[in-house]
Every structure is written in C-alpha cells, then in structure tokens.
C-alpha cells in the first residue's frame, strides 16, 4: 500500500501517514476524509492530546504496516496483529475512528464543525440534527433503501 503524499500543504511526513491509516481504519477514502475540512484540526488535536512519543509510535507502526502490505488482506492482517492486538495501539486506533465518525475525542467534540461533519451522517444517509438541515420539503422524499 502506498502512503499518500503532500496533503493540504502540511509539511509533516507523519500527517500523510495519519491520513493513510485513517483511510484504512475509517473505511472512507482520503478525499472523503479531507472533504470534511477537519484533517489538519484532527491531527493537531491528537498531537496535543497524546504524549508525542506515543503518537509517533502509533504513526511509525502504521507507516510500517502501510509500506509493507502489498494487498488488502495483508494490510488487514497486519493491522489486526500489530494495532488491534496491542492494547495501547488499539486504544489510539479506536479514538481515531471515533473522531472521524462522531467528531469526538474521549467524549468531547473537537470543535464546532466536528459534530456537523462526522462520517456517521454520511453512513446513515442523514444529517446532523440541529446543525445541517436537509432542506425544505425533504421529508417528502423517501429515505434511502426504503421498502415502502
């Protein structure tokens, strides 16, 4: 697997690793993650929330997994054995996934936009109540995958 290159003009190699591992963990493409407009904010927030050595260790393990996996099965197995099976790494991975889906880190919203742009809304084909309404008469349109 390739690590993406130079995103959002952030001069930090580990940012690219963060985005690449986020893509794998969250199941959304880097472009979809970037479209939320929160990638830099999330990366910066994690750097301030975790001990620097801990975050760098997570990113170094992630970098090695990404660089040494030649296909999706190998990538999945490496994540399982090197991240999920390691309690410290698993904890960080879970927090990263939660951050992308819900916009929170340890139960607190990262910023005003993180609630609105959580991946959970895309996954549910919905909108964040009270923040980003679907529009006038949207109730008249049948929901996605509706059987009625």
**What does the largest sheet look like?**
2 strands, antiparallel
The low-pLDDT segments are: 6-10
Beta fraction: under 5%
Gyration radius over CA = 17 Å
Total number of strands: 2
- Provide the helix percentage: 55-70%
* Structural domain count: 1
Strands of the widest sheet, in order across it, are: 1-2
Shape, principal axes of CA atoms? globular
Protein name: Membrane bound FAD containing D-sorbitol dehydrogenase
Organism: Chryseobacterium rhizoplanae
Quick structural gist:
By secondary structure, the protein is mainly α. It is built from eight helices and two strands, in the order ααααααββαα. This is Membrane bound FAD containing D-sorbitol dehydrogenase.
Describe the model:
The protein is mainly alpha-helical and 148 residues long. It has one domain. 59% of the residues lie in helices and 3% in strands. It has 8 helices and 2 strands. The protein has a two-stranded antiparallel ribbon with strand order 1-2. A hairpin with a 2-residue loop joins strand 1 and strand 2. Helix 1 packs across helix 4. The longest helix is centred in the middle third of the chain and has 17 residues. The radius of gyration is 17 Å and the shape is globular. The relative contact order is 0.13. About 3% of the residues have low confidence.
Core attributes:
two-stranded antiparallel sheet; 8 helices; mainly alpha; Membrane bound FAD containing D-sorbitol dehydrogenase; 2 strands; 148 residues; 59% helix
List the helices and strands and how they pair.
Layout lengths: L12 H14 L3 H6 L3 H11 L2 H17 L3 H13 L2 H16 L1 E2 L2 E2 L2 H5 L2 H5 L25
Antiparallel strand pairs: 1-2
């Amino acid at each position: 697997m390739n690590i993406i290159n130079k995103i959002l003009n952030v001069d930090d190699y580990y940012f690219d690793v963060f985005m690449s591992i986020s893509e794998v963990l969250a199941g959304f493409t880097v472009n979809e993650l970037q479209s939320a407009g929160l990638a830099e904010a999330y990366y910066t927030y994690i750097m301030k929330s975790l001990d620097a050595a801990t975050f760098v260790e997570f990113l170094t393990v992630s970098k090695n997994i990404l660089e040494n996996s030649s296909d999706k099965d190998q990538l999945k197995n490496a994540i399982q054995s090197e991240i999920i099976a390691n309690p410290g790494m698993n904890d960080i991975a879970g927090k990263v996934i939660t951050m992308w889906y819900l916009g929170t880190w340890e139960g607190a919203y990262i910023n005003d936009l993180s609630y609105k742009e959580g991946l959970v809304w895309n996954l549910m084909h919905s909108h964040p109540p009270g923040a980003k309404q679907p529009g006038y008469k949207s109730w008249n349109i049948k929901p996605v995958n509706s059987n009625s």
